[in-house]
Amino acid sequence: MKKAIVFLCFSLFVFAVSAQTVAAKLKTAFQKFENDPQLKHALSSLYVINAKTGEVVFSRNASTGMAGASTQKIITASTAFEFLGKDYQYKTRLGYSGKINGNVLDGDLYVIGSGDPTLGSWRWQQTNDSLTLDQWVAEIKKMNIQEINGTLKTNTSAFPYQSIPDGWIWQDIGNYYGAGAYPLNWKENQYDLFLSSGNKINDKVKVLNDSAYSFKVNELHSAARGTGDNAYIYYDKSLSGTIPVNERSFTISGAEEDPVNKLLTDLRLALNRNSILIAKDKGIYNRNLFQKDSSELKDIHFFFTQKSPALDSVIYWFLQKSINLYGESLVKTFAYEKNGFGSADTGLDMMIEFWKQKGIDENELHLVDGSGLSPLNRLTTHAQVQVLKYAKSRSWFPYFYDGLPEYNDMKMKSGTINGVKGFAGYHHSKKGEEFIFSFLVNNYNGSPSALVNKMYKVLNVLK
After folding, report:
1. Beta strand pairing call for 365-366 and 206-207
2. Which domains does the chain have, with CATH numbers?
3. What is the pLDDT of residue 450?
4. Considering the chain, what is the average pLDDT of its residues?
5. Is 0.85 surpassed by the pTM of this model?
6. Phi-psi region of 98 (alpha: psi -120 to 50; beta: other; left: phi over 0)
7. Integer Cα distance of 17 and 212 in angstroms
8. Which long-range contacts (CB under 8 A, 24 or more apart) does 286-289 make?
């Protein structure tokens, strides 16, 4: 017994000394970091706790609200697991109005969505756009429909008219990462542009597939070799920026202006390829009241339901590839599942209220979107660590942890917008200690990659 007590005391002493050593090293490393010229006008915050004991290892500006960029996705992902459950699946339904007489549908064919952001995505085999359309056509054929004496329809009023959060900036919303969230999303609401640059700096850049998109203004120019993708697509159908010289098929991706009609158009083409005729040649989607409990649903005969991958798989890609569309869809889904209407504002209020009930001061979370793309978001590193700590106690944690990318040999979500860089996650040290941390920097100057290396040097103390 005495030996056991002595051993326990010694272990606690070693642990305490080790924790003090980490804290002291973090203090030194962070002071050096803050004194770097790149941080002269910046605000930096680091909050670290011991994952097993909850003891604060280091805290600097932990209660100061800062833009968190995509590190904010850890909050949306954790909330999604709590609100929806790891097995949650979105549902997209096919149905028809009117009657089927012989092999003719005297009525309209409907596609009714619930905000599935994975529909037509290439990230899963079962969501692939071609396979999805082939399956839908096969289900329509099972109904013995060879001719549609009507048109293709859907209804988007289960979500607000505005698909894009108010806090997103003009430079972002025309590009693929600024795609809005709709009741019907298709191929992650993005498209590709293929560009060809000149041989000299400042030469004009040509859009090889411009006939499909008809841009009004093209101010793209060639830049020095190795400068990368600095091209931007704007929502008013204009292009600006640069790509490197001597590129013959350089790809950039934009946000689809109307993914709902794009989906209906692709479905119409798939039906035509299978000799299923449609009387009218334009898809229509209505803004009329059409909530999920509406009596109007009784007029539609649903015959097939397409289910998305389970939420744990959706969250995996949401965190791994930082897909903003997934975050905005999830926020609207919170409200849709509760009230039948996918208001983003309601979904965000639900998130803040949930974490308030878990002990996080509501003033630590000022959220205007679910992805972190807006520079108007404000959160504290303390709040992020509390979310990560809570996640670790939940049954769904293994799926959440698996989704976190690995940077600098640490499991953590990164975040990047103009002037903002952050990391938030977990680390197991070589000594067996477990840490939870959030590290945010706002308004730095100079190279982002140089800043990241300096942030890594601070985080390396935890190793």
Report:
1. unpaired
2. 2-86+313-462 (3.40.710.10), 91-163+258-309 (3.50.80.20), 187-254 (no CATH)
3. 98
4. 93
5. yes
6. left
7. 65
8. 286/153, 286/154, 286/155, 286/156, 286/157, 287/155, 287/156, 287/157, 287/161, 288/155, 288/157, 289/157
